[in-house]
Here is the input.
Amino acid sequence: MKLALFFINLLIISNVCSKKFSQLTKPNIVFILIDDLGYNDVGYHGSEIYTPNIDKLAREGVRLENYYVQPICTPTRSQLLSGRYQIHTGLQHSYIRPAQPLCLPTNLPTFADKLREAGYATHAVGKWHLGFYKKECLPTQRGFDSYFGYLTGGEDYWTHHRAGDGLLPNSNHWLGMDLWDNEKVAWEYVGNYSAFVFTEKIQQIVAQHPVEQPFLLYLPFQSVHSPLQVPSSYEERYKNIKNTNRRIYAGMMTCLDEAVGKIVHSLQQAGLWDNTVLIFSTDNGGEVAAGGNNWPLRGWKRSIWEGGMRGVGFVNSPLLPASVQGTVNKQLIHVSDWFPTLVQGVAGSSLDNITLDGFNMWKTISSNTSSPRQELLHNMDPWPNQPKEFNANISAAIRVGHWKLLTGDPGANNGQWIPVPDSGIIPIHPLKISGKDTWLFNITADPNEYHDLSTSHPEVVEELMAKLKKYYADSVPVQYPSEVEEANPAYHQGVWGPWQ
Here is the structure.
């Protein structure tokens, strides 16, 4: 009898342990998204900015050096969370403004939805910028168990207030608070610097999290987006930088680097790091008018030149095989690939036949195998005319193998190359050719886009134009409604929040 009870107890313990083990084998996921980080703004790319924690994580992980994001905030976030190109969400044009009745389509599942279905606790801390005009658009309605952050595209780092965009009469005077703790306004944090507040919130989540449940931490920091604001002690570290914008920006970046170090340390202290996959990414190229820099790449934020879209990114995890730790991965990877990579590749969960534009890149990253992606639609923006068929006047860019084709207006004043201020390097201003609407580059051989090959390879231009026409035929109309008076924070207790 005693022997039988012993084996029954052993079986019960075995079942409990196996359940815990199966849960623990689902890795925790930490996704750090940095706002307006330029290609030349991390130490490991040769920047003068001090980023030791980021550099260490990149050096010991897998650096993604053929990785692309979108040229601006909302489009990158929409593709990250939905796994769909902008042509399939209607968010092809610009970003969502505070008073626009627009958000990421609510019929699309997010990667947070799928990870929560797979048993993950899901938390978001930081910038949303995917629309908030109705409650159904909020992070807590889009797959996240908890949310702490701001809903618009940018605000004061200390007061957490912002004005409207000025597209409606006097809307640039619409001043409103925008900091939320789930679906409650977090007034108590006025006067506290956002990078510090966000880091403390993240540390609290980590410290309180039960080790037996996997979690997603989505951390879209406010840093280093304008306005250029940082505690003076960080700016003072860069007295040698004469350019004011670059000096403040450098201080902001070093402050952010400290936050990244604290997050990793908190995971280690909680015994969670060994079962965690950390992804680090920018959301678009650096804004040169606000201290960022993308040298030697061409262009900057908002442009479809490489400087607007070539992403700073890496993956670090103790779970990565030793053979890929400390390596550089040059396989083609896009921000839309994170949805299937995290849900299917890292979490081992089913995608349930969801239609996606992204590819599962986990084997590509963890085993350095060939990328399943050989083609990438960077974007096509027909706003405001939206003709029935694609033509070369439409701003668009596509990458197929080594080739990249651009049409229409690629932005960034015809694609300038802007060095770091006071570096002694003379900026390069390309000649603007009247009527020119097509450029072709071999990006592998010419990543800085110096040599336009459109006239010498017309057959490649024709092939890639045909692909753009196909994508356009499959696209949904651009959704870019006018701003509305009802969004004015004056009607909502001085707060930017849902108004429908």
